[in-house]
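re: that complex we talked abt at group meeting.

here r the seqs, copy pasted straight from the sheet so there may be weird spacing, ignore it
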Amino acid sequence: MIRCLAALLLASGTLAAQVPEGFDVADTPGDAGGSVVASWKQLPNEDASVTYVVSVSRSKDGPWEEASRFPATGGFKSDAPKYFWFWSSNREEHFVEIPAFEPGEGEKGPIEIWVRLEVVTPSATAATAPLSATPRPNWWNWPKTNVFVFICLFGVATFYLIRRARRDPNLFIRRIPGLDAMEEAIGRATEMGKPILYLNGLDGMSSISTIASTCILGQVARRVASYDTQISVPCYDPVVMSVCQEVMREAFYSSGRPDSYRPESAFFVTNDQFGYVAAVDGIMMREKPAACFYFGFYYAESLLLAETGGTTGAIQIAGTDSVTQLPFFIASCDYTLIGEELYAASAYLSREPIQLGSLVAQDWGKIAVLGVLLLGTLASLARLDFFKHLLATF
Amino acid sequence: MTILGAWIAVGLTLFMFSFLYKDNPFYKFGESLYVGIALGYSLVRLWYQTWIDKVWEVLKSDASGKWWVLLPVAIGLLLLTRFVPKVSWLSRWAFAFLIGYGSGMAIPAILTTSIVKQAEATAKPLVSMPDKSEAAKKSVDGAKAAWDKAKAAEPTETDAVRATRIRYEEARSRTEYTFVTAYRDLTTLAIFIGVFSVLFYFFFSIEHKGPVRIFSRIGILFLMIYFGASYGNTAMGRFSLLYGRVLTLKKFGGGDYYYSTGILVVVMIGVLTALHFKNRGKEERA
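got the structure back, here u go
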């Protein structure tokens, strides 16, 4: 009779605690070595009355320190697709991420982490045998695989199209009115005998928009050199200033006018946002440039610069991928290159095969994105989540 | 000291505002002071936060173990070779490193945030399918009960009651096709058309004529609607900054601060008027 009662109680799972199956401790997949993961299968009849307690230690024999405690209704692998992807079996397994131990005095990392799992029910507690794992940085970040695949495909397309552009440099590029107007603006500055003001934005050399801006500066400087006019490039960042000097020197030399090159044309002002604005506004009012070019990434200063430039009567052409500042440039400049037109500008002006090939590759990339969007929308309409999971980023 | 600070704050604010009249000595003074202070401050900050914290202190604590901090220092020093024409070509190594590192860091990040993440968020069903699961039904019942309870407690629709009603309607729209569902579907459709047409606008290697032209026109329409909304939003933010400044001028213009705003405005107007008459002849000749 007593045995039967005990068996019944055990089966109900309310009083007795049992150790879950498949308890495992492993290095966190795809991370930089900052943690390990303990996982186990859910108990057959687990409910909110069952609590999991995960304890950690630096050695198998303890002392143990509680790392996590949660009811059995939570902590499923399906909550962390970053580590375990979207497999349906993830809803049947629990997990805990355990941060790596900081190395102590004289200790060298990474340190092995011992983990013990306890199952606590209202009436009893059961513990697993401790297991260990060592947190290590992984070479491959699995959650970023989709980005890697996209980069590879885009890279292959770019190389192919550069080869094609070398064979046939007359690839079609649609008209960009703002860039056609640059020629006119430089010509106007030459006729008026006034300088051109060229700004690179407020980002450093690690920003794609600044890199695009310096490429455009190279093309502008070529025309400036051939028209023998003046250009002024006040810089917010000293490194950008040095790059601008190099780019301009190269442009003047390749235009056969090394004597006209003045390194002081590109100069550092300050790397305080509104200090820079105050200085550039002052330069605009004093030098009264015939043309102002704003290319690169801008912040709150965009309207202050473009409005002041507008009051001097200069032709103003802007190009930025800063979506919050584009409205101000559109409102206050004669021509504005919107977003990606900034990246296209250098290829448009120079028609160099490498840049042309990259530009056409960008279009291919956009076609691919359109295809993915169309397929993704159709797949989600058909409730096929797998396609959406392929696009997941973490 | 507080009064002196107030006079300086008011003076510098008015100096910068004087630019609205034209470039003048007050503005030039404010500009030079601003640029000088900003430059000096950033130089000191760079010295302590970069050189002292990231190089000097690191080497002092463990020179043999952390010698590698000297590598970025060496790359940075290459930039200074620009001052020596014979070896100035070495600075290009530093630029190559900076641009390579910048592109390597930026391209995957941009691809993740601007392409893959956006594509994931955009790929949604254009027509919502009613969720017939038990969990969804329970959620509707729970939201309805909460709304009924809130209504019983408050006879008029307060913000709290409205919040419970919105939650109920939101939950109901997932299980049956309601006005909210239709609105959500329309939004999804607008996003879908917007993304497609804007992408068409940014095609450079295809001539914009025929259907491509129509699509790209729709795209530029979407962009302009966004830019208009963004302009209005930011302009309102800028006005609030101006109000803040005007309130400061008003506060410091009181008797507690010896009428700093009023006195400085009068002095500045006087000086600018005098300068105007003094330079009138010169400006006309110029």
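couple things i noticed - Residues 4-15 of chain A have pLDDT under 50 and may be disordered. The first helix of chain A runs from residue 2 to 12.
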